[in-house]
Design a protein that fits this description.
This protein has three domains: about 200 residues, 3-Layer(aba) Sandwich (Aspartate Aminotransferase, domain 2), CATH 3.40.640; about 55 residues, Nuclear Transport Factor 2, Chain: A (Roll), CATH 3.10.450; about 100 residues. About 35% of the residues lie in helices and about 15% in strands. The protein has an eight-stranded mixed β-sheet. α3 packs parallel to α4. The protein is of the alpha/beta class and about 400 residues long. The model has no long low-confidence stretch (mean pLDDT about 90). A hairpin with a 4-residue loop joins β7 and β8.
Amino acid sequence: MIQINQIYYLKSSDGEISELGECGGSLTTLMKFLLENKIVDGVLAVEKGNDIYDAVPALICDADEIGRTAGSLHCGTLNIAKILVKYFDEFPDLKLAITAKPCEAKTIIELGKRGKIDLNNLIMVGVNCGGTFPPVTTRNMIETVFHVNADDVTNEEIDGGKFIIKRIDGSKKEINIDQLEEGTYGRRYNCRRCEMNIPTSADVSFGNWGVSGSYAGEYSCVEVFSERGAEILAKAIESGYLLVKKPSKESVENRGRINTSMVNLAKKWQIHDFEENENDILSTFTLYQEEFKKCIKCFGCRDACPVCYCQDCTLESGTPEWVDKGRIPPSPLFHLERLIHMVESCTNCGQCEDVCPMDIPLAKIWHQINLKVTELKYSPAMDSQELILFDFFKRPE
């Protein structure tokens, strides 16, 4: 009997997927089960693009193609929740399953609260995440730190606080992530500050934390967060798709210790990055005026943001004209308007900072301001039933 708030070890009964996937291939097999049994119309996940540093979204509707999405891509920094809005705008009755990192799961909840996604038509299969790596910087890191041709790397993984690469000849090299982050390499900066490693707003969440002994590398540690999650796992097990084991008390406790350690590390990075966080929201905003002066108003941050969806954007509005057209850098109102929209909905996914051509630390700015909002006892994107903190007016899109 699969129960909510319980943890299980799961492994695929399909030998091919078990070898192809991560930690026994249970997540990939669950998606195959959902497709073959017509529970969903499609699975939205990521697959390898040109190389292991390139993750691209993939909508899989044929169960035989699900193997394309097997395995982890730690240089996959995209937030595929943004794509969901486009699918549901076009096909509102579409039923999908999606693999979601914590920031993606939070984004989905936020979009659901705002009526852009019907959460009843979506199964969220979460993946635990200790952080993603910027692809271009990571290629450079492999060349300069590992002294390996980045194109010769066939696989990368994170285990035990180490970044591990595997080369074409089968050899492996590893280095402690803490050591990387003492310099200029390592995880993306928003990931370092992130306290959400387990996507508790998903229906279920998969990971390798807490898998020990002979089960390590062979099984995934899966936590159940919803009745729907418990139901689909139970059916997949009963149908013979998944093999299940009960983890020991010690393994569950170890998983909790790892998560606590990651949360504490994130808080240390917040202290490191937010040395001046005693101000109110507007005072914090003014700390970054020199950074905002670098802005060329390319709208990249707005276009990349997964919770920016208005068709009639106030940043380009003519009536009233909030932001002067043709002015570079734009007036402070440009970023102040972004602040008003993002202050209680930012999920710290880092998309805005990733695309900024002027290297403005946008994710850092919004995260620092967002932490001020949590002092009001409001945490964005955690509860689909919680009212939006600021809701000024509504108009047809």
